[in-house]
Automatic annotation (TrEMBL):
Residues 25-264 form the ABC transporter domain. Residues 1-20 are annotated as: Disordered. Residues 1-12 have a biased composition (Polar residues). It comes from the Bacteria. This is ABC transporter ATP-binding protein. Keywords: ATP-binding, Nucleotide-binding, Transport. GO terms for cellular component: plasma membrane. SMART domains: AAA. Signal peptide: none annotated. GO terms for molecular function: ATP binding; ATP hydrolysis activity; transmembrane transporter activity. It comes from Acidipropionibacterium acidipropionici. InterPro entries: AAA+_ATPase (IPR003593), ABC_transporter-like_ATP-bd (IPR003439), ABC_transpr_LolD-like (IPR015854), MacB-like_ATP-bd (IPR017911), P-loop_NTPase (IPR027417).
Length: 264
């Protein structure tokens, strides 16, 4: 069984980081090295269902490596990551590369700085792609994709290719693609890094509304304090270790209210 004392600052010192959210990810003693560089140095944390968590830190602090290890993009050299689902716990660190790929495709969503969209495909085809890879027929997949594009403020743009969209519109397509499989957790790596401040605010609003606003979990790596402050919790890394774990005042109640609204 994994210990719940999994970050460098004890819960008694920092207060309960989950603040009433049941755990959805438990990471313990993660180590990841690149040659002589120790990107993660015994990192552990617990992330709760319905939380929005920003991961901050200077360049090279390990924040993107942490996101990749939590989501199964990378395998840590040692330590453990457990994803808690209604069917039971899944030890991400116990899966091989193919197993981690299946886990990402079926249970997790991703938004990256440049969107990582396929330029040859239309907006609706990009969003429908994860469903089709999971065996959903094209008609059903594109219908569901169109619903998500409309929900994110892009009705009528389904047939446009990515190069015909603004940066903010393209990131909304990326958010729709991340959400179309209804994942429990969305991981976002600098999702506003290539956007101007106003568009970044709009994109973060859409990302939060479509995740924590529906009772889902969001983990976002960012260097932008304004982006981090929209999240309910901020993890700060330095030299591969968590040096601060702070909850934003009032955000837990906001998240719970949003979740209740989404369930009505």
């Amino acid at each position: 069984m994994l210990s719940r004392t999994v970050h460098q600052t004890s819960p008694a010192q920092a207060g309960d980081p989950l603040a009433g959210h049941p755990p959805v990810i438990i990471a313990d003693s993660l180590v990841k090295t690149y040659g002589p560089t120790r990107a993660l140095d015994g990192v552990g944390t617990i992330i709760g269902a319905g939380e929005s968590v920003a991961v901050m830190g200077p360049s090279g602090s390990g924040k993107t490596t942490l996101l990749h290890c939590l989501s199964g993009i990378l395998a840590a050299d040692s330590g453990s990551v457990e994803l808690l689902t209604p069917e039971g716990g899944i030890r991400v660190d116990g899966l091989d590369a193919a197993g981690r790929a299946r886990l990402r495709r079926k249970r997790l969503g991703f938004v990256f700085q440049q969107g990582m969209l396929v330029p040859e495909l239309t907006a609706v085809e990009n969003v429908a792609l994860p469903l089709m890879l999971n065996g959903v027929d094209r008609t059903t997949a594109e219908a569901r994709a169109s619903q998500w594009l409309a929900a994110l403020g892009l009705p009528g743009l389904e047939g446009r290719r990515i190069g015909q969209l603004s940066g903010g519109q393209a990131q909304r397509v990326a958010i729709a693609r991340a959400q179309v499989t209804d994942p429990a957790i969305v991981f976002a790596d600098e999702p506003t890094g290539a956007l101007d401040s106003r568009t970044a605010e709009e994109v973060m609003g859409a990302l939060l509304e479509s995740t924590t606003g529906r009772g889902r979990t969001l983990v976002v790596v960012t260097h932008d304090l304004n982006v981090a402050r929209t999240c309910g919790r901020i993890l700060t890394l330095a030299d591969g270790r968590i040096v601060a774990d702070q909850r934003r005042p009032g955000t837990a109640a906001h998240t719970e209210n949003s979740r209740q609204e989404a369930l009505r």
